[in-house]
Write a structure and sequence with these properties.
By secondary structure, this protein is α+β, with helices and mostly antiparallel strands. It contains 4 helices and 7 strands. The chain has a single domain, classed as Gcn5-related N-acetyltransferase (GNAT) (Aminopeptidase), CATH 3.40.630.30.
């Protein structure tokens, strides 16, 4: 498995992975599939030296197994030391260590870019993601009870964080 910066050619695979979660899970509370133009805008916002987006690909660099990104936590300047992590793994690649490698890469990237805090918002039902983040040093910050709704179900979101400096 290779972890590298996401490229325009990866966008259809990134979109497929994410849109499956939009349509079939509470891993994201998005309820509308993003357009190709929205994905292009998303990639343009992920400036490699500030807010990179990565993909995990097979050894031949032909299949995207998952993707991850750092993004600004808040537009308020006082929060500039905090970035939010996102990790999504193709449903057929789960259990292979893809998520772990992607999250480790985000941690390294955040340290290199001198961020001080990583934040994650995780659906309370996403126990695998909660365990992965805890294993890599994220702590439970709090639970936002009944904050979201999807598929007619009211859901909790767990906030996790990791201090880097």
């Amino acid at each position: 498995m290779i972890i590298r910066l996401a490229q325009t050619a990866d966008l259809p695979s990134i979109a497929d992975i994410y849109n499956r979660e939009v349509l079939h899970s509470t891993a994201t509370l998005d309820t509308i599939v993003r357009t190709d133009e929205e994905w292009e805008e998303w990639l343009n916002e992920h400036i490699p030296n500030a807010f990179p987006a990565f993909v995990a690909v097979d050894d031949n660099d032909t299949n995207v197994l998952g993707w991850s990104s750092l993004k600004r936590w808040s537009p308020r300047v006082g929060y500039n030391r905090c970035v939010e992590v996102s990790v999504y793994v193709h449903h057929e690649s789960r259990g292979l260590g893809v998520g772990k490698r992607l999250l480790e890469g985000l941690i390294e990237a955040a340290i290199e870019r001198k961020y001080g805090y990583l934040a994650a918002r995780i659906g309370a039902a996403s126990t695998v993601s909660l365990k992965l983040h805890a294993k890599l040093g994220f702590e439970h910050v709090g639970t936002m009870r009944r904050v979201g709704e999807k598929f007619g179900e009211v859901v909790d979101v767990v906030l996790m964080g990791r201090i880097l400096s």
